[in-house]
Amino acid sequence: MSAPGSPSVRTYVLVFVALLILAAATTAIAYVDLGPFNTVVALAIASIKASLVGLFFMHLLYTRGLTRIVVLAGFFWLALMVSFTLADVFTRHWVGLPSP
Amino acid sequence: MSDAAANPGLTHAGARGAAVHHQFEDLEQQHDASSFGMWIFLATEMLFFGGLFTAYIIYRGLYYPGFAAGSHGLDAPFGAAMTFILLISSFTMAMSVHAAREGKRGMLVALLLLTIVLGAAFLGIKFTEYGQKWREHMVPGLNFHPAAEDLRGAPATSVELFLCFYFFMTGLHALHMIIGIGLLSVMAILAWRGKIKPENYDRIEVSGLYWHFVDIIWIFLFPLLYLIGGRYK
Predict the structure, then answer these.
(1) What ipTM is given for this predicted complex?
(2) Scanning every residue of chain A, which has its alpha carbon at the shortest distance from the alpha carbon of B46?
(3) Does the distance separating the beta carbons of A54 and B216 come in below 8 Å?
(4) Which residues on neighbouring strands pair with residue B143, listed in sequence order?
């Protein structure tokens, strides 16, 4: 059933320190000119931070499969919403339809 | 773990201890059900915020200069400070769950109060920022007559559109923070009265899931709203 154990205090502290470093990195990198990659790097760091919070603070690493399926289902529907909406809006000019 | 697990013949509530509600086999199953329910709610929240993020992506693509100009009008160090405060509060929240699991009542109350204070500090900075926008006359719909230098050469309507997203996304996030602070206040009172025990700490766990989720939303809002186009130059 459920995965054994829960994170130790040591794990929580290590994850917390990693989150602080990543937050500092996000802010610092904004002051460096990376051209279009500023946004890519910022979102990549944000995704790593969100994963750390999810896996350790929200115990996804220590939970059972059913809960993980709920999270994946959430991401799946989110991906559907974003990708299908973008596929509509950003291809309208191909066939000369009005854009928002 | 529980009597029922050790002794399958015993299925009455009395034999399994009062902490287990009658519809569950044992504490572990009851705890899993709590987390499962909260995660289903959080999946709907993901799509709730997801609608705003989708609209943001589209309009940022269509009106990029206005979005970059509006973003440069926000105070990046303020945004960074709020990010750090929320991350610290997530850590104290995670430690609260740990204290609840271990049955350390005093530490649980202290950590919950600390989390609430950090959440309130976040909201304090947020509302200071809203006040600043009001004084700059950059609140769409209610008070939008920005000075030319605040528009940074971008069309006023595009900057206004960015600020609409800014206020709706941070506003919805702030509403969640207020609800979270209310939730944690109830938990702090329950913990203070000694109602939280290791066998029913799942309500702290579930409150923690909500708090961490709101933190994750902010982790994405910070770069998307405060750091568009970088801060070099």
Answers:
(1) 0.91
(2) A74
(3) yes
(4) B139
